[in-house]
Design brief:
By secondary structure, this protein is mainly alpha-helical. It has one domain. The chain is built from 9 helices and 2 strands. It has a two-stranded parallel sheet. The longest helix is centred in the first third of the chain and has 29 residues.
Length: 224
């Protein structure tokens, strides 16, 4: 029950108003959508690969999920923080940051959707090793960025976040493997185009950059 209550508090009690939430979503989505409309959509038309409504909805669901992650990890607008690295907040020995296991469980829960959504939406992301590597690098980027916040940076977060990604991928294999044979109406079909095959990775990079750089704290204050 404690885990459920803590999960609810962190997910649903963290945004502090509608306008800051919308602004964070725009920061997360805007760069990816510019890439999509001006580059990726054109490439798909050239290859005769239509994009159905389901894919559009799932892509925006992916942005919403990333928005929650960036908010919960405290990295939004960190580019403007001006904080120096505090060595006392770096924990290299796993599972020494807290005697309470709840934060570790929450880290796992946080990245399960990543391991599920990546292969579900993009067929180019359906190899297990690729999902794991992307999940690890995504977590590494968050932990590195947290060096410049008042948050803790630890190897335990890296391990548990990657574990959550693996669990999410296993859930995909068990319950959604039928999408392996689905059409591009549901997912981006794998092609010879390196751009399309790495579309999900590009969205992660651009959304991360938008959350860190575009989400200026002054604008958040005005909108609050």
């Amino acid at each position: 029950m404690h885990l459920i209550n803590e999960f609810y508090r962190r997910v649903f009690g963290s945004f502090g108003g509608l306008r800051p939430t919308i602004f964070l979503f725009l920061c997360v989505a805007i760069l990816s959508e510019l890439l999509y409309f001006f580059v990726i959509a054109k490439k798909r038309r050239e290859l005769g690969l239509p994009v159905g409504m389901k894919y559009l909805v799932l892509r925006y669901l992916f942005y919403v999920y990333l928005m929650f992650v960036y908010r919960q990890t405290g990295i939004r607008g960190v580019f403007w923080s001006g904080r120096a690295v505090d060595p006392s907040r770096i924990y290299l020995i796993p599972f020494t940051t807290s005697p309470d296991p709840t934060p570790y469980y929450l880290n796992i829960l946080m990245t399960i959707p990543l391991g599920l959504l990546l292969p579900f939406i993009w067929s180019a992301m359906r190899k297990g090793w690729k999902v794991i590597v992307v999940g690890f690098m995504f977590s590494f980027g968050i932990e590195f960025t947290q060096l410049f916040t008042n948050r803790v940076t630890s190897t335990s977060d890296l391990i548990t976040n990657t574990a959550g990604t693996i669990i999410g991928y296993l859930i995909f294999l068990i319950f959604f493997s039928w999408t392996m044979h689905s059409s591009s109406d549901l997912a981006t079909t794998k092609t010879e185009s390196k751009l399309l095959n790495n579309e999900a990775i590009l969205y992660l990079i651009l959304s991360f950059s938008g959350a860190v750089v575009l989400n200026h704290p002054l604008i958040r204050t005005v909108l609050s």
